[in-house]
Every structure is written in C-alpha cells, then in structure tokens.
Amino acid sequence: MLNSQEAVLLPDSPRLTTNNFDLLRLLFAGTVCLVHAYQLSEYQPLAWIDSVLSTRVAVEAFFVVSGFLIFMSYERSSSNTTYASKRIRRIYPAYFVAVMLCAVGLLGVSSNSVTDYFTVSWVGYVVANLSFLNFFQHTLPGVFETNPVNTVNGALWTLKIEVMFYLSVPLFVMLFRRFGTLAVLAIAYVGSISYVVLFAWLAEKTGDSVYLRLGRQLPGQLSFFCAGAFFYYQLKFFERWAGYFLAGAILVLIFDSYWLFPLFEPFALATVVIFFALFFYLGNFGKYGDFSYGIYILHFPVLQVFVHYGWLADDPWLYLAAGALTTLVMAVAMWHLVEKRFLLRSSHYVSASRSPVEKGGDPK
Fold first, then answer.
1. For residues 359 and 18, what is the distance between their CA atoms, to the nearest angstrom?
2. Residues spanned by the domain of 348
3. Residue 361 lies in a domain
4. pTM for the whole thing?
C-alpha cells in the first residue's frame, strides 16, 4: 500500500509483536461484563462493582487499542481490499452469529407466542442489528419485559462506532500523506473534544440527557481512537520518553477528579493504556485465541437470561460467577467454531497459536 520511501517512516519495534494488547482487551471485556452483571440485575451486594469499575473507561480504552492496532493493520495491508477483508473477517462473522442467536434463541424467553414473536418488529430487530443500527430496534417482542432493563444486547452500540473507525482509516492515512500525521490527528482530536463539550453543555442547559447520549457517539469517541493512532505513529518518540508520558498522564487523571480536563483526559488514558500494552510483557495471552470479542458481544444477553429466570437471585455472588463462566464458555466456543475459521493465515492469532511469541502476524 505504501511505496518504499513512505514505508521507511513507519514505526518498527519488537514491542509491536511482543506486547500485552491481548491481555488488556480481555481485561476490558471482563470489566464490562462484571459491571453489567450488577446493572442488569440490580442485586445490591454487587453494587460495589459499579463504584470500582467503569464500562465507560473500558470502552474508551478499547477505542484507544483500536486506534493503535487498526492503523498498524492498515499500514501492513497490501491494498484497501485486503484491509477491508481483514476487518470484515475479524468482526462480522461472530457479530452475525451473536445477533441471530438472540433473534432466534430468545423465542423461548419471550412471553409472546411463536406467531406473535416472528413479526415485523422481529424483522426490524434483525435488520437494524445486522447493519449495526442497534438504536433503531434494541428489543425483541416479549423478551425481557420484566427485567430492570429490557434491551436485548446493550453492548452492541459500540460496534457501529468501531466500524466507522475502520471506514475512516483509509481517509485518515490519505490526509496523513498530504498534510502530516500530527496535524491531522490534532485537528480530529480537538474536534472530537469540542463535540463532547458542546453536547455536555447542551445537556446541562436543557436538562435533557439525550445530549449526553449523543455526545458518546461519533465523533465524540474519535479522540480516543486518534490518541491510539498517535502512539503508533510516534512509537519511537514514546518509547524514548515513556516515563515522562506516564507521569504526566497520571497527574492529569488524578487532578481530573477535581477539575475537568476534557482536552487532556483521552490522551492521558491512551498514554496509560499504551504504556501497559507495550512495556512489562506478561506473556502470550493470544496463544489459545482471542476470547475478548466473544465475551463482549455475548455477555449482555447471557446475563439478561439469568435475571429473567431469577437464576441464583438468592446468591448474587454465585450469579456473578455463573454468569461470567457461562459467558466465557460461550466466548471460547464462538472463537473456535466461528471467529478463528474466518481469519487469514497472516492473522496474529493464527501465528500466535503456533508460537509463544507472535512473529509478523496481522495485529487485529
């Protein structure tokens, strides 16, 4: 995709092949699962989870990792077609299965009859969700009506943003070549922050929380993606000054508890995430596969089913353990039966499964 003169400018480091990205994604997905276990059940013994862990931070960290790895994947692709193929193979097969498992499998949970279940509303759910437009239809007929939350799979809202990020990468790289990487990333970053601040102001001004929800959509999350991209393209500089970057980021995040630093918070979070991804290697967590995606797209309906039937409601801790374990088992099955079968041979996970240290495979 690049000529030889441009390719020389791309970062090259052993940390691009020996890192903790797989572990971090697993931790982020697990965080979202644990927090949702409380939020969906409202079992008070689990309330501490919601005060200690944050789905918002976990999702933002996911976007940081995507910014780093997706730009690297694009730069290593031989063409736009190859890049698109890798992205579709990685994200859509499992996504399709997750949507259809809910659409068909949750008939048994619905309070409606078969004829009242497979209606226009059901078709609307399938079409909206398979096209990543989850906000158009997030419920199924008669499903989870008595649950505190009746959304079938509330975790899927981030996937449309992820897909938009994928689509934006070729445009970003084209602009990088024309105007410079730092200039383009800075403009996109500040524009994203400005969008978030504007909608936060509108929410406060009007008292309408819909503006806060809109602020979480694109381009509100773009700052995290751009911050991740910055650390990929400026990897050598970051490696040289990593300690200073980390110290500054920690200060920003600490003082953010007292003063709002919207301009610096995404970059500070990205600094911490990328630092722990690249330094202090903890082992090949991709050796047996990437279960983080399966955990993320499956945990919500799994937990909803537990809540619907009241399984282990008298023992919230056992409910938490059983829900998490069920999700993990399903994620492992999703990996081996669906996800792995669509990957190219150049995939990181194909090579990682053969060796403790991945050697040259595509990062995502």
1. 8
2. 4-352
3. no
4. 0.93
